[in-house]
Give the backbone structure.
Amino acid sequence: MSEDIDRHRRRFLGTTAMSLAAARFGMIGSVQAQSSKAKQAAVQLPIEGELPSLASATEWLNSPRLTVAGLRGKVVLVDFWTYTCINWLRTLPYVRAWAEKYKDQGLVVIGVHSPEFEFEKNLDNVRRAAKDMKVGFPVAVDNAHDIWRAFDNQYWPALYFVDAKGHIRHHQFGEGEYERSETILRQLLAAAGSGDTGHELVSVDARGLEAAADWRNLKSPETYVGYERTENFASPGGAAKDKRRVYAAPPRLGLNHWALSGEWTVERRATLLHAANGRIAYQFHARDLHLVMGPAARGGSVRFRVLIDGQPPGAAHGGDVDDQGNGAVAEQRLYQLIRQPAAIADRRFEIEFLESGVEAFAFTFG
C-alpha cells in the first residue's frame, strides 16, 4: 500500500464501533428489524463534490471500463472495499441487494477495490475473492490508490452516493445506517425519473462472515501482528524486528494481549513462521474471531488446529474449521476461526500450525 494511505483508518472504524457499542446496538438492532416500508420524508442532500475520474483503475472486473461521462444520467453508488476487511464484508449483503433490486431503475454500483495488504494487489486474489463473495457488480481495481485519493477517502468501507448529474450527494463511512442509505438511493433514483422503485426495502439474510457483529459482546479490537501497527504483544523479551527468533507464550494473557510460541520472524506488516508447531495465542472477548493469513509460498497449504481455553472449539468453531478445530491455510484471505453460539466471556484462543510457511497479518472480531 502507498505510504501516504493512513493504515489506521479501518481500525478507527472498528474501535469507534466498539466504544459506542451500547449506544449503537439499539440503532443496529433497529436496522436489522427495520420497517419494510421506505420512509416518505425526503432527506436533505447537499452537493459534496463531483464524481472523480475512474480512468486510473488498473483493471475492471465484471464490466468494461466505465467513465464519468458514460455514467451521466445514472445514479451511482461507489463502494470502497478491500477483500479482507470484515467491516466491509458485513455491509456487502446490503450493497449486493441494492445493486440487484435497483439495476433496472438506473442504479450502477461500482466497487473500488483499494488494497490494504500487499497480497490484495494480486489480481488473481481479487478475482477469486469477488467470485467467492458473489460480487457481481462492476469493480475498479485501484492498486495505486489513485481513485481513493481522488475521493479524498480515508475508510474501508465507504459509500459515496452520486446523483444522475454526477454530483456526490451523500456518504456513509463504516457499517450501519442501511435503511437511511437505501432511502437516499431511492430518493436519487426518483429525482432522476427512474419510475417506480416499489415500497419495500431490501431484506437480507446475512450469514457466515457477512453476519452483523454482536456489538454488545464485542470488546476486542482489530489487532495487527506485524510490528508496524501491533499492540499488546506479550511474549517475553518483546518482538525482535525482522529477525528470526524462538518465542514463548506466557501461561496467562491479559485481555486483548497476544503472544507467539515457536520460531517466527516478526516483520513490518506480517509475522512469518519458520518451523512446524508454531503457535499464536490471543485473549479475546467477542462472538467471532478471524485471522487474516495465507501461505508464504503461492500454491502452498499449511494445516492448523485451533483451541479455545485449551480445548477443541466444538460448537464454537468458525466457518473455516471443524468442531475439532482442524483447518488449512491455502489462500491469502480472512479466515473465520471462532463463532461462539452463546455465553461470551474472556477466552484464550490458540492456533497451532502443523507445518511452517504461514504468514499472519491481523486479527479481527465480531
